[in-house]
Amino acid sequence: MKLKIETFMQEVRARNSHEPEFLQAVQEVAETVIPYIASKEIYNGKNILLRMVEPERAISFRVPWINDSGEICVNRGYRIQMNSAIGPYKGGLRFHPSVNMSILKFLAFEQVFKNSLTTLPMGGGKGGADFDPKGKSDGEIMRFCHSFMGELCRHIGPNTDVPAGDIGVGSREIGFLFGMYRKIRNEFTGVLTGKGLSWGGSVIRPEATGYGTVYFASNMLATKKDTIKGKIISISGSGNVAQYAAEKANQLGAKVVTLSDSSGFIYDSDGIDSDKLAFVMKLKNEERGRIDAYIKAYPNATFHANETPWNIPCDIALPCATQNELDDVAAENLLKNGCICVCEGANMPTTPKAIALFHKAEILFAPGKASNAGGVATSGLEMTQNSLRYHWSRKEVDEKLQEIMENIHSACITYGTNENGYVDYVKGANIAGFVKVADAMIAQGVV
Ligand code: NDP
Ligand code: 2IT
């Protein structure tokens, strides 16, 4: 089996040698899915995984725009249309200076499995630009988004490819992007998700990724007859996912003690309660400030520059910032301090070595493609509401979100339970996500 996996990876490496994040995501899937493929006659000789690692289409384009000083700037925009076997391409847009083909291909690849897990009819894609929104005025953001959509609009559509937010793309950016699509294409349609409530958005979409991550952690704890209530939770990031993970954790009676951004983390041993979280939301979403402002408002808390929060004792860790933010040293610290559950809100935040340590210690560990799927699932619900030209209530959407997270959790148990009863959620999510897409690809032939 090792040889089969290595032979496969050699071919993938040869083709994508300068894409470390993409190779990391593929390796994890190969290790868990190739043994499964080998055990099923129907996949024999179909080269399904090799077809799945090749994007159906990868678009790269020039994004010229004019800054407030009147200078002409140029960024590179992308859309990776990875797999549309089970539905239109679906996945977020990331605006961050680190964006490149490798990062977007890893995200698009994971999105295929994640979207399949939601049980909704969505293929996988991802896009974005190496644009840095930090320090830009609203006018600059608008001009950039308009220029970006000026090209992207020819490649997307409500039945073709439906982008949404990710790092650096929130409700403000989705608004500017939607405005330009509507103008150029002369149609009002569900081409983006995460829209405002008065123009086609769904309730709970802003909350959905963070809420869904905490619902997933609750499902995991339930397998140990345990709950979130009273737990100490360490969260990284302070953006969309982190904020609503903290909100739901508070609602369920846990105590959140950390948040972070790329400058460092804050530790508040008294807990970041709803009032303090409202301060963080205003700081991050309106003032677009840095997380160290927290300790000026709440002097009992401490700020730790250029550090991640994983050396702070906690019961549950929710990495909600970015890829590879939790390494083996961090994992050892978490385990040493008695952490019992790590549930990824971000995409691929835990390094392979750190995952191996969590698996060895047999603690609860959920990969993002399962635990953060609530965001895209609710995007799927937004698409349904747009098609129906109707909208559901908060209660209806929240109930559907909880049901979807529960179903994803059950699928992980079905495909991921080891002989000794330990649930390998990585294996479970990869195989369960693979099966639906692979079966659709086989039914549709070699296309
Ligand atoms: P936001 O842009 O709202 O927030 C991102 C947060 O992560 C910020 O606090 C940011 O700090 C921090 N961060 C970003 N890059 C780095 C870095 N290189 N090092 C340290 N900190 C960093 O993004 P989201 O909350 O939407 O996304 C967070 C994660 O969740 C990403 O991995 C994303 O792919 C994933 N995700 C998002 C979904 C969504 O619906 N939005 C759905 C599923 C997954 P700073 O401001 O200093 O950069
Ligand atoms: O990584 C993700 O799942 C997202 N950024 C959300 C994608 C979406 O289409 O809602």
Give an account of the 3D structure:
- With 447 residues, the protein is of the alpha/beta class.
- The protein has three domains: 51 residues, no CATH class; 143 residues, 3-Layer(aba) Sandwich (Rossmann fold); 164 residues, NAD(P)-binding Rossmann-like Domain (Rossmann fold), CATH 3.40.50.
- It has 16 helices and twelve strands.
- The strands form two sheets. A seven-stranded mixed β-sheet has the order 9-8-7-6-10-11-12, sandwiched between helices. It has a five-stranded mixed β-sheet with strand order 1-2-4-3-5, sandwiched between helices.
- Helix 7 packs across helix 14 and helix 15 packs across helix 16.
- The two termini are 28 Å apart.
- The protein binds NADPH dihydro-nicotinamide-adenine-dinucleotide phosphate and (2Z)-2-iminopentanedioic acid.
Contiguous low-pLDDT stretches (5 residues minimum) are none
What is the averaged pLDDT score?
98
Supply the number of helical segments. Answer: 16
Q: Between the first and last Cα atoms, what is the distance in angstroms? A: 28 Å
Structural class of the helix and strand makeup? alpha/beta
In terms of DSSP E residues, the strand content is 15-25%
Oligomer: single chain
Strand order of the largest sheet: 9-8-7-6-10-11-12
The radius of gyration over CA amounts to 21 Å
CATH architecture of the largest domain: 3-Layer(aba) Sandwich
At the fold tier of CATH, the topology name of the largest domain is: Rossmann fold
N-to-C series of helices and strands: HHHEEEHEHEHHEHEEHHEEHEHEHHHH
Q: What is the helix fraction of residues, given as a range? A: 40-55%
Judging from the principal axes of the Cα atoms, what is the shape?
globular
- DSSP summary, beta strand count: 12
Ligands (ions, cofactors included):
NADPH dihydro-nicotinamide-adenine-dinucleotide phosphate, (2Z)-2-iminopentanedioic acid
CATH class of the largest domain: Alpha Beta
Structurally, the number of domains stands at 3
* Major sheet summary line: 7 strands, mixed
The fourth-level CATH homologous superfamily of the largest domain is NAD(P)-binding Rossmann-like Domain
